[in-house]
Predict the structure.
Amino acid sequence: MSRYSFLSLLRNGLNHHRRWPQAWRSPAPKPAYDVVVIGAGGHGLATAYYLAAEHGIANVAVVDKGWLGGGNTGRNTTIVRSNYLYPESAAFYDFALRLYERLSDTLNYNIMLSQRGLITLAHSRHELEAMAAWVNAMQVNGVDAEAIGTDEIRRMAPLLDCSTSARFPVLGGALQRRAGIARHDAVAWAYARAADARGVDIIQNCEVHGLIEEAGRIVGVETARGPIRAGKVVMAVAGHSSVLAAKAGFRLPVTSYALQAMVSEPVKPMLDVVLLSPATGVYVSQSDKGELVFGGGLDLYPSYGQRGNFPTVETVIAGLIEMFPGASRLRWMRQWAGITDVVHDSSPIIDRAPKPGLYINCGWGTGGFKAIPAGGFTTAHLVARDEPHPLASAFTLKRFETGAMIDEAAAAGISH
Amino acid sequence: MLLIDCPWCGPRDEIEFVCGGESHIVRPAPEVDDAAWADYMFMRTNPKGRHAERWGHVHGCGQWFSLVRDTVTHEISAVYRFDQPRPAERD
């Protein structure tokens, strides 16, 4: 792997940028690997990278039915944050954010992390009180959090309607200054390039049709390019987890929903924080290109259609205009949807599957992007050592039997 | 936008309805073990394709019923009352 640096930029600039090497190979699948990861999204690629970098297991393939980073990793609203309520989640997601803070250096790839701060707005006295408890919980858990007033919010987001005549008046907010946005594609590309450099084979356009089972153990995958045998198989397929689980003969506590996001036309800088409003059900930031990037709640019924339905779009845009009346003049440029793997307690599942040889990374629901570094790190640990990483020991399938849920539905901010 | 044929009110827009998840889940006897109870409470078939699910006409007649909907195309192939079994599939 040739390192990216100011010097390499200069050298390639003098060559009119015609001699940049490929960022990763496109190898043909080998007949067998130590580990096969299904799903070349953020979590799958990060798992492969950490298997190679932290555990010395580089004989790894990542297979994907499409192109890498083409699922939810390329469809989210790019927000990173760790403002969770419970200690287990706070430790896990803050670890992810700390890895994100170093990721550009670690992977030698600019993920364009911008820690511009995220404000969750409070629109009623009850929300203010709940927010105070939430901010306190975050501080106790060692995560940065501040409760701020309307004047501070008006200063940070001047175009936000903070007037008393607003449909949802802004009474205050919870600010996490370390939260922000990162370039979502770059995160997938960075992990792909770094994993490839350590010998991981990334095999795109190679759909998994089934799992190979011998004597009750998963020993490989049937793919569009033939069977690939594996010592261990990891599934990191988000919204399609139930489909793959059905092929292995078990069910998951997962329901797949479409989550939509959209962007406006690009405009001059108007918003340099991330805003989230539980009352309007909208989260919004402005991209470096100037587009308003925003989204809202889930679509109203289970779906595998990566497109979304119009009633939800209408609700989200109405919410945005409540917050920014000026946005009513903006043209709507693009809309898309990802299929999210929603679990009852809005917490992930990082665990051994009921079938030996198979490992699960799923249940991220609407918030998988922010968790990518920690999800990959802890999944790699689980696969390499066959025991859960301490940070992920609460996120097992067993919790649905014992009742030890980590109910983060409220901390997700939007009522998904 | 789905047009849902409520068994009592006829075709109405999806915004009048709420989806209540998978149909035909049978509650086990209370004395089953934790695994069986978790299976009943939390595990879902969540198929990619035809899915039998409960819908409530909450902004209409208030009645609940089942329908079979394709989770990719959203095509509704059957609507039936709660006291009726899932209709045989036709392709």
